[in-house]
Each structure stands twice: as structure tokens, then as C-alpha cells.
Amino acid sequence: MAGWINQRMSNAISIWANGGYFDIPNGWVTDSCGIVFAHMEAINGAGDLDSELAVNGLIESGHHAGDAGSWGASSLVGAGATVSFTLGKGSLHYFKFRRMH
């Protein structure tokens, strides 16, 4: 039990020390393993939304629908992965990364 607690505390400290999520540009190559997160807003908050999250050029998740408010997707990625998004309709709310050391 003590080992489990120690591991959880170490993970929490590592995440805190690494600053949490930060903004990244489209097509960014990760410098460590971590979580990429994309969030898109529909046209006028409730219209068409056409967007995808891709890792190394492969679609990880996508949303193609009308009458949507917003859409978000996340993915665990390794170091050296190219992360990107496509946006046909709607607007980017944020595109972020969080290192997991």
C-alpha cells in the first residue's frame, strides 16, 4: 500500500511540476509522451461542426454533424508524434498538450 501511495504522489508532483496543459500549434511534434486535447466550437454555437484530431496523419477522432454546440477529443501519444487537427466548419477553441513524465 505504501508503494502505491508513493507512486501516486510522485505522479501528482510530476504533473504539477510540468505545468499541466499548454497551447500548441497545429502540426506540432511532441517532445515527450503526453495527452493532446482539441476542442472545437460549432458555427454560432449550435450549427454545423466538421473537425478531426489526427496523430501521425491518422484520424484519432472526428465529428461531422449539424446541430452541435461543441466537440472535444483527447489522445495519449508518444514522444515524437505529430499531432494535428482539421477544421472544415466551426472554430478552434483550443489545442493543448500535457506532458506525462
Structural class: alpha+beta
Sheet with the most strands: spatial strand order: 1-8-3-6
The ordered H/E elements are HEEEEEEEE
Low-confidence stretches: none
Portion of residues in beta strands equals: over 45%
CATH topology description: Jelly Rolls
* Count of helical stretches: 1
CATH top level label: Mainly Beta
Can you give a write-up of this model?
It contains 1 helix and 8 strands. With 101 residues, the chain is of the alpha+beta class. The protein has one domain (20-99): Jelly Rolls (Sandwich), CATH 2.60.120.40. It has a 4-stranded antiparallel beta sheet, with no helix packed on it. It has a 4-stranded antiparallel beta sheet with strand order 2-7-4-5, with no helix packed on it. The radius of gyration is 16 Å and the shape is elongated. The model has no long low-confidence stretch (mean pLDDT 82).
Strands, helices and their partners?
Elements: H1 2-17, E1 22-23, E2 28-29, E3 34-41, E4 49-55, E5 58-65, E6 70-77, E7 82-89, E8 91-99
Antiparallel strand pairs: 1-8, 2-7, 3-6, 3-8, 4-5, 4-7
Could you give a quick summary of the protein structure above?
The chain has 101 residues and is α+β, with helices and mostly antiparallel strands. The protein has 1 helix and 8 strands, in the order αββββββββ. The protein has one domain: Jelly Rolls (Sandwich), CATH 2.60.120.
